[in-house]
Every structure is written in C-alpha cells, then in structure tokens.
Amino acid sequence: MQAKIAVLAGDGIGPEVTTQARRVLEATASRFGHSFAFEDGLLGGIAIDETGVPMPDETVALCQASDAVLLGAVGGPKWDDPTAAVRPEQGLLGIRKALGLYANLRPVTLYPELIDASTIKREVLEGTDLLVVRELTGGIYFGERGRRDGGKTAFDTMIYSEAEVERVVRVAFELAAGRRLKVTSVDKANVLESSRLWREVARRVAAEYPKIAFDELLVDACSMHLIRKPSSFDVIVTGNMFGDILTDEASMLSGSMGMLPSASLAEGSLGLYEPIHGTAPDIAGQDVANPLAAILSAALLLRHSLGLEREAQAVEDAVRQVLRDGHRTADIARPGEPTVGTQQMGGLVAERI
Predict the structure, then answer these.
(1) Do residues 174 and 93 share a domain?
(2) pTM of the model
(3) Domain membership of residue 217 as a residue range
(4) Distance between CA 41 and CA 47 in Å, rounded?
(5) Does 62 reside within a domain?
(6) Out of 40, 220, 282, 325, which one is annotated catalytic?
(7) In the annotation, is 282 catalytic?
(8) Tell me, what's the pLDDT at 32?
(9) Rounded to whole angstroms, how far apart are CA atoms 17 and 283?
(10) pLDDT 10s digits, 308-338
(11) Among residues 11, 67, 187, 188, which one is catalytic?
C-alpha cells in the first residue's frame, strides 16, 4: 500500500515525539511491505513565527491532499497571551474545522505494567478499558462569542444542530459494536437546552442499535464515576467542551498523559492523529518526553485512515512488549527505577515491530 502522511510537528516536545511516531510508521511500512511518504507542514506557534498565522493555507492544502495527518502539539509560553489576536490554538481549532474533523476518539487503555503509576487505587482501576468520543466541530468553542457593555460583559454560545449530534453519536455506537456493546451519552440536560436536544437525538440513535446497552449521565456525575468506577464504562460520547475536560480527567487513570493517543475523524477516511498531551516546554529538547502516546496515535492512523488493522495491532503489541520488558520514560517510572529517553523508547518499539 502507498500512502501520503502529512506531519505537523508543532511546538515544544511535538517535533521529538512525532519523529519517533514517524520512525515507528517507517518500521511498520518496511515490515509489512508498504510505502509511506511523509511531508512536513507548519501549525501552531512555529507557524506564527515563520508565517505570521497559526494555520497557513499551505498547511491546509497539504493535509487535504494527504491520506492522514500526524500532529505533535501546539502552543507554549512564548505565545501564551490569551488577549493576543493570533494564538497557536487557533491553528488547532482551524485545522479541525477546515478538514471537517467532527469525531475525536480518545481511548484510555490501562496497561497492567503501569497500574501503579496511577494515583488511583489498583482495585478501582482494574478492568478499565474505555473510549471517549468527543464531538469536535460544534458546541461552545465554535458558537458566537464576544463582549458588550464596553467590554464588561462577555459571552460564549453553545450551539448544536441535530445533524451534528446524530453523526457523532452514530460513530460511538458503531465503535461500541466492536467493543463491549455499551454507550454512555454525557450531557447537562437538567440545565442546558443544547443538552436537551443532544439527549433527544442520542435516544433516537440508540433505538437503532437494540443490541447495544445505552445509558445517560449528567457531566458532573460522569466526572465522579470516572474516578470511582472507571471500569463500568465502555464508550462515552459527549459534546466538545465536556469531552475536552473529561478526557483530560480520564487520562490520569493511566498515570500519564504520555500514554494516551487520539484520533480526529472526518467523513470518509481522512483523520488527524495526535497525543492528547501538550507541548511540555519545560522538558522540550531534553530527550525525556514520552513518545508512546504519539506512537499509539500512529497505530490509530494505521487503523482508521489506512485500514491496516494488522499493522495497527503490531504497533500496539510492540508498545505492550516494551512495557513488559520493563522500559520506562521518566513520567511512568517508579522512584529510583531506571529510565530511557525519547529516542531510545522510539527505537525499542520500532525494533519489536
């Protein structure tokens, strides 16, 4: 198979972890007889520095002409002025909108070897294997916003259409059909009108999948259950802002954001794949960042955009084997335990493929 992959390395540790993800993809292509062509593009802070905008038109064109997009992370203290007219995060929101990326998948897989890396008790964590499906192009992040009363009053509007809700809820049910046959829809229907619409549509879609168990939770209750009984969840589907918050909370179940990948899917096969962690500027350039989330994002790329399930499984199996062999980056190591760096960890995974 031949495929073109756009690489948006971004800022901070982004270039370091995407280099290792690309390395693993190259090893996978070699092992299974594929040909992957990689082309670099600019997004985020580095794009602001080099072009004056966080999302150059050339980057959008590159991504649209590619089979998949691999992203590092964007942002950092250098551009961290919330009042600035141009910010790195605008590039991230913009590329999602430009590519029509409407469903964000964030799996939370608990590796037995890392169960003690979490601050949550072992007996609470055991059996946890969940997937959050977050709506990505609607909600409060994209609604009308502004200031009035001379800047003394601010507003952000949460808005959803039936079509936006239906398509992301349907993704959740289709994914649950290949997992443990359960979907939990999360909203704030006791307060928000947009959530009441969400709930109506989710129930209607659920009726089309009688073999899949369906339940509903308010977002505040879900946030508690994620910590109290995470193993009770299979697939969670929710709106943009709620999903943003809940997935960061869920990431702590695994002990480190450095372990969690994500996939953002459009209609068809195009997708953007990125670790859920940020740019971590405090450790950038030190060869200590954990590349496993980026590498596992590459596995999702193989599965969802290229349709290469066997190859995706090979990457995930290689990560598991590296962890079984006792290799740890600093973020997932116990006190006093020896660690490996970013490049070495990427090499270890590539070797096992």
Answers:
(1) no
(2) 0.92
(3) 119-254
(4) 9
(5) yes
(6) 220
(7) no
(8) 98
(9) 12
(10) 999 999 999 999 999 999 999 999 998 889 9
(11) 188
